[in-house]
Amino acid sequence: MSTRDKSQSMFDSAILKPALVASVVKLHPRELMKNPVMFTVELVALVATVLMVRDIAVGAPDIGFEIQIVTWLWVTLLFATFAEAVAEGRGKAQAETLHRMRSETIAKVLVGVSDIFEPVRANALKVGQVVLVEAGDIVPADGEIIEGVATIDESAITGESAPVIREAGGDRSAVTGGTKVLSDRIKVRITAEEGSSFLDRMIALVEGASRQKTPNELALNVLLAGLTLIFVLAVVTIPSFAAYAGGSVSVIVLIALFVTLIPTTIGALLSAIGIAGMSRLVRFNVLATSGRAVEAAGDVDTLLLDKTGTITLGNRHATQFIPVSGVDENELAKVAQLASLADETPEGRSIVVLAKDKYGLRIIGTAEIKGQFVPFTAQTRMSGVDVDGTVIRKGAVDAVVAHARSMGATPPMEEIERIASYIAKEGGTPLAVSRNGQVLGIVYLKDVVKGGIRERFAELRRMGIRTMMITGDNPQTAAAIAAEAGVDDFLAQATPEAKLRLIRAEQTGGRLVAMCGDGTNDAPALAQADVGVAMHTGTNAAREAGNMVDLDSDPTKLIEIVGIGKQLLMTRGALTTFSVANDVAKYFAIIPAMFIAFYPQLGVLNVMQLATPESAILSAIIFNALIIVALIPLALRGVKYRPSSAAALLRRNLLVYGVGGLIVPFVGIKLIDIIVAATGLA
Amino acid sequence: MTFNGWVQIALFVAILLVLTRPLGGYLSRVLEGQRTFMSPVLLPVERGFYRLAGIDPAEDQSWWVYCRAMLVFHIVGFAFLYLLLRLQAVLPLNPQDMSAIPSDLSFNTAVSFLTNTNWQSYGGESTMSYLSQMAGLTVQNFLSAATGIALAMAFIRGFARANAKGIGNFWADLVRVTLYVLLPFCIVLTLFYVWQGVPQNLGAYVEATTLEGAKQTIAQGPVASQLAIKMLGTNGGGFFNANSAHPYENPTALANLVQMLSIFVIGAALTNVFGRAVGAERQGWAILAAMGVLFIVGVFVAYWAEAGGNPLLAALGVDNAQGNMEGKEVRFGAPLSALFAVITTAASCGAVNAMHDSFMPLGGMIPLVNMLLGEIIIGGVGAGLYGILLFAILAIFLAGLMVGRTPEYVGKKIEARDVKFTMLAILCLPLAILGFTGLAVVLPVGLAGPANAGPHGFSEIFYAFTSAAANNGSAFAGLTANTLFYNSTLGVAMIVGRFAIIVPMLAVAGSLAAKRKSAVSLGTFPTDGPLFVGLLVGAILIVGGLTFLPALALGPIAEHFAMLAGTLF
Predict the structure, then answer these.
(1) C-alpha distance from B460 to closest chain A C-alpha (Å)
(2) Residue B490 lies in a domain
């Protein structure tokens, strides 16, 4: 699914050893109680053990069979707790790295108005306190910058080594505990207390410690408990039926039948699936505040995607040079290239490249230019070069026009405005170029739709998910880009209110909405959306409002998040179906074995031709235990997921896990029976 | 099996399919309180009832209020019927001087007719006065059927409505179904049966002298009117002990066909009502298709078993060309007896035109399996639909996650609360059937019941509790059930099988109605295609059927293989 997947092998000994220990610890009834199916297995295993001890004490015959059944019952339980322990172990390994950076930090808590501070241990910080963080310091806890600007190394959280800039005010004011300030100094107001910080939540989630059952998991647990009850009824009535027929069935055989019939496969793997789903998300550098959000992601019907950065490349690319009348196109290209030589922004580079590709202009090294480069500033909104007394500028149209006027020229305003407004309508950005005060023409900077995004939207459409583009552009521009990108719909000139209205309208229509956002003004919409992914670079308000945070701040990831949610649900469904379908074969293995003593004619039902009644029962219970281990990798990895329509997914999965679930145990039990019979175990 | 036999079966299926849609449309209009062609006559009557009872038919009841109204109505109905049976000796319309009915039998019978089961531990013509038959049993035949249809509609509303607090008005549903559907249809059917030769009188029994000179008492009574509702309302309680095998209760081939059709027609039409209500008739057809698959398989196996006859008799040189004819009317033969048996047990009717006890082991297993699955193959009027919809919820939840979304059925998300109540409803059938059978096969009072030994005797007991809990009411025969033990345990099984399903079912309806309706997209689990039909059938067989496999193995399956090995019971 991802190149970032740093999944560990299941048999990594660092995980395996603690998992083996944990799987024994987890046998404690208090732990198992959370899992109704496995708890039931434990109860009957205890009963069987007591019976076995009694039979050993009285020296009953055929004790070997009984010992084997009891052993396999406990092995079944161990496999179940092992599955959960492995899933948790993998999460713990992820958390380990996070733990390491939570080494004790000393915070500089400001007292009074001046910069006087007193040292306080980070874990004693209170919400609302203001701390000073200077270059080289670790940010002691999550907070909001109230003063200053700083470059911060967030690699501990995001894995991204390039430092980021965080500043007071605006949409990039949040800092995270555990990150390191590289330059400057900031004052930070603490927003999260010890234990509830971002890092803490992340650790707790990947460890599976604070894991709460998600709605679907709860419902599934109810279903499994119900099925278990049905099989209780089916099994406890057998002794009296058998008594009527003049025979009897031993308790140990009844227990074996019961344990094989109840849905132990899914019961054993259910929590492992949930934990693994969560850690898949974390591996994707997305942090969900709850499992509920991950499930909701699978249910999403409508994706709201910001245009910039998601659908189009964040940067605009030069695609055309439009000279004013009387100026040669080549001349304009040459001057524009000169003006951009020292401009390292993607826009600037794209101008240089366009001039080279389209007009064959050689790229001159900046060292060859004997001149003075003028960098871009927010005040001038222009950049350029002064060379051999020639003043070359490029920049926002009004800024360049003002510059030209200041040099005493009268630019052809009508023509310039005509070109500029044409470009704006097409969804582009105009940049004016001037030489010595003469405006030569306009560079057309165009929004470039990301490569492959069209295919992804088509993919989503096949899955039944609608995509909507959100943009501040005017409707014409938006329509042009929407058509090019292939989104289903768009919202132009979007305001926060319009976004919120749109989400509500979609929800009223019975659709679940996912969106991502970063600004404070996105917070209401993020909170309203069923799945709100906040960008890590965003404000604290946005991060609190959403139910997921993307550490890479990559809005395209919304699509992957939906995939992870779906995969999680599919894995649960597939193993449930498989588990229930398994029962058919188990019935055919055990029923003839159970009744053959008093109704020999029922031997016909032994369709698998199992060697003896004992070997049949033993093989069924061994199969039942081994299938759990066999499916642990699938539970952790998730079932194969390819975006396609529900009908196609259902057809495929029903075939693999439904029909497969009917057939596999027939083959498996037969094979085990052959081995059991050959080795003389029964 | 003969070509002729299959043509008769195909004819039945074809007529049923033709009737499903128009009747579905009519039922939908009635249940939604819209005008129908009968409104000019019946609307004043309907309004009169509401005024008389002080009911506002437009009042939308929450699931619990709806449920409470239904329960109160049944408690009162039970008290009335129980007293009527206890006091019939002193009440009028009793030309044969029938005596009062004992308390345990009265309890059993009252429960039986109240729950649409119509299990009969008595012989009608030798026990019941005409008043008991008409004012007691026939009335409950109407009301229990109307209740079933009303409840199905309440459940349908749960799927159809969005963000709603209520699921309809029980009283209005009850009145409308009785007035616009059951009464007029039954009047027409009664006249039809009278034309076919079914008696409809209040006269005393007739003495006749047979050709051999023996004296024979020929029972009389208001048979046609009870026959009509017995079939249409899937009640099944015969006027005569021999039920629809009696020539007066099933005189002609045409009467037999109409009886079979009227058992299925409302149940089939309700699937269409469901489809219309949720905005896609295909959804209804899918449900009917799932029922159809199970039905056709059942008919095939039963007909195959009965037409094949008993191999042990064939070995003795008996001509088996007609198949197994023991316990069958010569007029109907193997195909129509097998078809009738499958229909009556699939539909929770319980009327019989042949003795299921005398079927071949596997032929007799089909009626048993039909009931064990929970009477969801067409099922009892209304009960069949809500029964299969509960299974649909279960199937959707089992496999629906596999499309990567929270399971949805017709736009409703299935969540923990719905799963919980659905499981409760599904649990009660194995509880009542296996629990009581387990008890009866070890207690001396239970073992006194069956007429046969071995697995066949087991089947007789197992069948009785299955029939009771599934509210079918057909008897395997061979079981002496008019005892204190069987009357009371079967009565309790009937109550559990009816109300322990209804109450959680209504809770699900309430929960579903309150949910918003999800939009349909390509990402939605498709529930109107063959894939879903297969899934639903699979879920019914695995969850509903496998539970009973041990019992079936010790009953009909053991008997079948014993027969092949040369042993009969």
Answers:
(1) 13
(2) yes
